[in-house]
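Morning, I've got a small favour to ask if you have a moment. Here's the protein in full, and shout if anything looks odd to you:
***
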Amino acid sequence: MLKKFLKWSASLLVLLAGVWAFLLFAPKTNEQTYRMRVEKNQGLSAVSRKLAEDDVIYNRHVLLATAYLLGVHNRLHSGSYKLPKQVSAWSILQRLHKGRPDAVTIRITEGMRFAQMRNIINKTDDILHETAGWSNEKLLKHIDPDILHTHPEGLFFPDTYEIDTDSSDIQIYKLAYRTMQKNLQTAWDERQSGLPYKTPYELLIMASLIEKETAHEADRKHVAAVFVNRLAIGMRLQTDPTIIYGMGDSYTGRIRKSDIRRDTPYNTYTRNGLTPTPIALPGKAALEAAAHPSSAKYLYFVSKMDNTGLSQFSHTLEEHNAAVRKYILKK
């Protein structure tokens, strides 16, 4: 009798183990991919209940019990997960414990305008576009209630950012803003003495001008020196990117003589000093160049118009005119 009981018990255990294994390891086929969202501090019980309600797994109790047996029930990584059409409870458990949530990558490059940054973020799939209809002023106030600026240009650091799928776009703006404030403060604190900037914001403006003038490491500090030297003697900066920025949507790829003569707040051919705001999103190298211009006494530069993209720098107008004839007029 005992032998029969033991044999029956063993058979039952084998059967239960088989059922358990099937419910845990067998992939369940669903009609489409499934987006699983795990909130911060959310437990596996709530997650498994939602999976069972949406018919993604065979049995939530098997998933829960396995997690408790392995001691991983309270070690979930919050975020959004995209599950394939065929997925097992075991795969889901492993993904929650060892994997990482799906992330969206957004690349903001140096020299972009803030309007371009907003356009990229607004067109990014798989994130919540909470700010899509907001004005720039509302966005800035949401990010920093104490902010003194109403114009967003230059206040956001260009970089590659990652956020969890289904997260709000406001996270990108907050991170880019905080990153710029950190890098700008570092550049300001470590700047060399004698520079013509009264505030970190003026250094930021200068960095944006440098960013738009050159992307070459060899030229940045010399471009910064040209602008600093001009400011020191009261000479206008006369940099084309400021004209382009002031033209706004009317710029079609060409600057005419009439554009140079037309006065706007950003036209450094008609106005002295720095522009009222940055004209782009400067990167770290441009910030460092603004804080540490070269010691050269250059006052002019012109593109060499070759495959290097480098510039020719000059101390005097005579030298500059000779460089223009050589590199631009090809005489």
